[in-house]
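Batch job 17 of 40 flagged for manual review because the log was empty.
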Amino acid sequence: MDSWLEVAPDRPATEVTVDVTFLERLRPPLPSRILWPDGYHIARWHPGVEEYLALYRAVGAPHCWWMRYMMSHAMLHRIIASPHTHICRLHGPDGVAGFFEIDLEKPETPYLSYLGLLPAAQGKGLGKRLLKAAIQQAWQDETRVLRVNTCTADHPNALPTYRAAGFVPIMVEQEHWHIPDDLGLVLPEHLVKARR
């Protein structure tokens, strides 16, 4: 485990077990226009740490997103302010509906770090469009492979959606996470049960 993910011994935490699936896409996207429903569009976003964490929580809290809380603000700022990090928000009639984040530090092998919708925006066919937009943004002229991972804490449609978009699973690893209780996350019951 990375040192910044270590939980202090006096910080109560709950252990969960997840299966993490690592996927790769080896073919570039076909040039095509994304047809968003009326009132929806994506836009590049350059957030500060606090506003980033607010959207990270709004999208990720139901799916056990927690690792970015474990970083110092200075470390997180370096990541999200880097010219190699591309963050785009999905805007809809009721405000921000979701976002994706791409790590382009190595354009030959970019990484789709995060992608998700707010709970109120789910079930409207937006996830597939958002993923298509992320693939188009991530794929550079020199790209050979686009990578992403998902886990059993994510939305159950995540893995099938990635596979339908041309990603191929290459490895599955079981991980044990110690999530600090003071983060205030409601952990999915099936993950907590998995460790018993």
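Reviewer: the log was empty due to a logging misconfiguration, but the result itself is present. The chain has one domain: 14-194. Unflagging and moving on to job 18.
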